[in-house]
Design the sequence.
């Protein structure tokens, strides 16, 4: 139980830091320290980088804890689970491609600032992007789930052939965090994109768990901001 408790607490601490740094207050603090322009250019890159580093620290800490096996699957069953994890990676990459990897990571804003160009708008959240003409691009995995990037963690977490006490504790907390984070992201997207996102909600694309059908989106996945 000590391993489960310590892993859960460490994962909650990671989630708390990750969430705190995503707040408007954290961004305003960064702007007051290094200046608004530098903050606008570099904050997203910093945020993604610290997420990777703190996750690596969480992984190293959990790896140092005692571990017990909950179950282990071998043979064809293990291969099937690994295939599911691979599908999760493909799903994640497809979502990042739809959003744009450099945009998701903030590199487009940093590069524009370094070259003296106007910085593109920062992403509101890990959701579909609003084009300059007011249309919402909800193609790719966004036709099956409104939060595919967050969902991609679920098969990666759970479809492991070797479940340990450490992984079980991390998976429970991590999955809950991804779902709660999706609720928060949805609120931000509704506020930012207004009518276009409301029409996306009305398309019956599932909130988190991918549906078997892509809702009622247009074949292009592009949603006008104002009803025709």
Sequence:
């Amino acid at each position: 139980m000590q391993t489960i408790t310590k892993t859960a607490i460490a994962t909650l601490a990671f989630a708390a830091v990750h969430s705190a740094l995503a707040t408007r207050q954290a961004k305003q603090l960064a702007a007051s320290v290094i200046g608004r322009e530098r903050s606008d250019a570099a904050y997203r890159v910093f945020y993604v980088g610290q997420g990777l580093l703190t996750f690596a620290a969480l992984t190293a800490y959990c790896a140092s804890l005692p571990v017990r096996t909950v179950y282990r699957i071998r043979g064809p069953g293990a291969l099937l689970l690994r295939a599911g994890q691979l599908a999760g990676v493909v799903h994640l990459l497809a979502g990042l491609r739809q959003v744009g990897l450099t945009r998701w990571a903030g590199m487009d804003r940093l590069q524009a600032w370094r070259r003296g160009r106007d910085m593109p708008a920062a992403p509101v959240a890990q959701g579909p992007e609003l084009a300059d003409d007011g249309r919402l691009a909800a193609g790719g995995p966004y036709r099956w789930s409104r939060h595919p990037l967050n969902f991609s963690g679920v098969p990666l977490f759970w479809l492991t052939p070797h479940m340990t006490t450490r992984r079980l504790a991390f998976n429970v907390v991590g999955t809950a965090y991804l779902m709660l984070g999706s609720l928060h992201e949805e609120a931000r997207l509704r506020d930012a994109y207004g009518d276009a996102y409301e029409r996306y909600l009305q398309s019956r694309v599932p909130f988190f768990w991918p549906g078997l059908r892509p809702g009622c989106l247009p074949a292009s996945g592009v949603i006008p901001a104002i009803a025709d």
Q: What stands out?
A: Strands lie at 69-72, 129-130, 136-137, 162-164, 222-223.
